[in-house]
Amino acid sequence: MLPALYIGHGAPPLLDDELWTAQLAAVANSLPRPEAVLVVSAHWESAPLALSAAAAAPPLVYDFGGFDQRFYEMTYPTPDAHELAGKLASVMPPGQTLTEHTRRGLDHGAWVPLKVMYPDADIPVLQLSLPTLAPSALLELGTRLRPLRDEGVLLIGSGFMTHGLPFLRDWSPAASPPGWSVDFDLWAAEALESGDVDELAAFRDRAPGMPYAHPTAEHLAPLFVTLGASADPGRPSEQLIDGYWMGLAKRSIAVD
């Protein structure tokens, strides 16, 4: 069975960061090769549940601004993913609407890290939308997705452990992390290492560094899909990557 991951996805300049790309590549190389990849990204909130285009070579969503032109010309032509779409539909509850957005490709929460992890773009990939930001509902969604892990599907929640962009003052990749970013990250690391899902779900009230670490919750929300997909959400997670990028915590984990 493949693990489920929560990874910090980074903006397109992540692709120029030698340390972080090496870390992401090492994560991918440590795993069995997936049959398919399903990504829940912070950058697609849509209810009811929706799927990205399943046809081969879906377009990319360049949902960012102010970067070098080369990032807007990048491609990631993955294979046809209709088989994965069928598997996903099979684990949905009766009556659950699952709409394929045939013109929506992969946003940067998916294609930026995947270009590092699986650079040949030879694995089928789909995105599943975030239907809510409520931790309890996302944990339940992750539980629904759990059986896909037995079928060779790599589940990735793609966000960022801290994401207080409005409060950053130094936008360089090696910037010193603000205190709120460090405090939240260390709190989250402790909760993850002890398997305390209830503590994590109550982040708005219990986490230090709030609301600066997450003025909006979409970058933490995919974590709860990942935790829900664990065979035992209360089991300590495996810490894959830590440290900071532009002062934001890039902590990434795997759950069994």
What does this structure look like?
With 256 residues, the chain is of the alpha/beta class. It has one domain (4-255): LigB-like (Protocatechuate 4,5-dioxygenase, Chain B, 3-Layer(aba) Sandwich), CATH 3.40.830.10. The chain is built from 8 helices and 10 strands. It has helices at 18-29, 82-90, 108-117, 135-145, 179-194, 197-201, 203-206, 221-228, and strands spanning 4-8, 36-41, 50-51, 99-100, 125-127, 153-159, 238-241, 244-245, 248-249, 252-255. The protein has a 6-stranded mixed sheet, sandwiched between helices. A two-stranded parallel ribbon has the order 3-4. It has a two-stranded antiparallel sheet with strand order 8-9. Strand 3 (50-51), helix 2 and strand 4 (99-100) form a beta-alpha-beta unit. Helix 4 crosses helix 8. The longest helix is centred in the C-terminal third of the chain and has 16 residues, at 179-194. The radius of gyration is 17 Å and the shape is globular. The model has no long low-confidence stretch (mean pLDDT 96).
